[in-house]
Amino acid sequence: AMRLQAPQFQALFTPGLRSVAELFEKKNYELRIAGGAVRDLLSGVTPQDIDFATTATPAEMKEMFTSAGVRLINNKGEKHGTITARLHEQNFEITTLRIDVVTDGRHAEVEFTTDWQKDAERRDLTVNSMFLGLDGTLYDFFKGYEDLKSKKIRFVGKASERIQEDYLRILRYFRFYGRISEKPGDHEPNTLQAIKENAKGLAGISGERIWVELKKILLGNHVNHLVQLMYELDIAQYIGLPLDGNLEEFARVTKNIQNLSPKPMTVLTSLFKGKDDVTNLDLRLKISKEEKNLGLFLVKHRQELTKALGPEPLRPYQDFLMDSREANTNSKIFELLKYQGEEQLLKEMQEWTVPSFPVSGHDLRKMGVSSGKEIGTALQQLRDEWKKSGYHMDKEELLSCLKKL
């Protein structure tokens, strides 16, 4: 058996984990690291969060932790078999091994087991179905480690069965493909066939769950390939994407934007032809207000608001920002520049500080302009002059300008 000795693995052994391990050992319950954290550790990545699996039932865990005076955090996981214990300022999420008894494509009813392979069988992908003993021993029933090394994404067992247990797994397949596979197009034909046959099942999955996965896909590798595939496999229509998405524009923008860390919505908007597409996405996926506004902004301005020819390419963006009365216009303009693939201009725009208009109504009163209406008109005229000067004119220059006006 393979034994992991990586520094990322050693680093997990905090005082908290040592205490948890001792408790389980005393009671002869088995405790192993499960799923995504194992995949990360084997890839040499430090896992963000760690799930543990155990042969102990929730009742046994509660009894063990309570009698040891360990605080339990109640976060509704118990009916699925998850207990969260807090030791040394650290939370430990520990789930009893389980078998899915009934699945409806969204949720599962589970019963507990002590059979590690049975628990691995109900997981989605081979690379996510491994366990790691606290001594570093790898338990791998479906060649997950082999797949991870050869960067292959496969379902555990029969693809269609896994998908029918939870249709969201179709999108998880895409997400992990974008994260792990070296090149686009390296799929098993029967997997793609199973996805196509079951695509309709995504219609019953909540928009929020879909959006979480879709955002990760949009920021991963091979995004152009994967979204094209969503159209080929008839998935797009069930997850809020337009039937006639602009795939040419999508291909162009995803290439431009690769190293600019765009927001997911910026990438996605390149599929859209107009604002209705943004509205329909929102109806299906319940995106945030900020995401919706960004989509509408990009659809509206991506063609007209472009760099100027000549020595001041940023001027149109600066002028737009100065005239805008809305919040976070600058972050929307950054996203627009990413969309347009303007890497250099983006850097300059991010470094540009918005100048403040140097003249106030108070200055005008001092010069003898008294009526509010006249002050308003004069300020607007001076603002226009200031803008024409590229925001360079100072107070003196502007006030002498006023005398001419």
From TrEMBL:
Gene3D superfamilies membership: Beta Polymerase, domain 2, cca-adding enzyme, domain 2
Taxonomy, superkingdom: Eukaryota
A single BP term in Gene Ontology: tRNA 3'-terminal CCA addition
SUPFAM superfamilies: Nucleotidyltransferase, Poly A polymerase C-terminal region-like
Domain tRNA nucleotidyltransferase/poly(A) polymerase RNA and SrmB- binding, chain residue ranges per copy: 188-239
Keyword Ligase part of the UniProt annotation: no
Keyword RNA-binding: yes
UniProtKB keywords: Magnesium, Metal-binding, Nucleotide-binding, Nucleotidyltransferase, RNA-binding, Transferase, tRNA processing
Record-level Gene Ontology MF annotations: metal ion binding; nucleotide binding; nucleotidyltransferase activity; tRNA binding
Domain Poly A polymerase head: 31-154
Signal peptide: none
Cofactor: Mg(2+)
GO cellular component, one term: mitochondrion
Family, as annotated: Belongs to the tRNA nucleotidyltransferase/poly(A) polymerase family.
Name of the protein: TRNT1 nucleotidyltransferase
Highest classification ranks of the organism: Eukaryota, Metazoa, Chordata, Craniata, Vertebrata
